[in-house]
Hints:
Layout: H1 26-38, H2 43-50, H3 54-62, H4 64-69, H5 86-101, H6 108-124, H7 139-144
Amino acid sequence: MVVIGKKKTKKIRNRLPQKRRRQWNVREKLMVINFYENNNRNVRGTAKKFNIEPKQVRDWAKKKEKMLKSAPHIAKIHPGKSPKYPNLEEELFSWITEKRDNGNAVNRKLITRKAISLSKNRRNRGIIDRGIAGFKFSSKWLDGF
């Protein structure tokens, strides 16, 4: 253990360096779980070997089945927030795939314009989505889409 601080002044508290955060992908988590299961289910020993918290080992062991079904390169198993307007996004997605299948380029500006026009067409057809009239198809929305 290394203590960082000045030796001359005793008034200043010495502090330990913070533990660095690390994001583990599914392959690495499964490797930790495998070690845990082959090591007589020793949570603390596994946590110490991989320099993680025991709670992480327990959580990963509970989620093993989900991890086995998911891709090995992803870091988070949660699918994310559900879309606010799923029907509109399905129409937009089919439009994008159709354009790309035809060999046309589709950029972010085109996608945003098409989303706005689809929302207006849906209102004209009598399909009512709450709050879509004031919805701004921002770059953050486009990133999530």
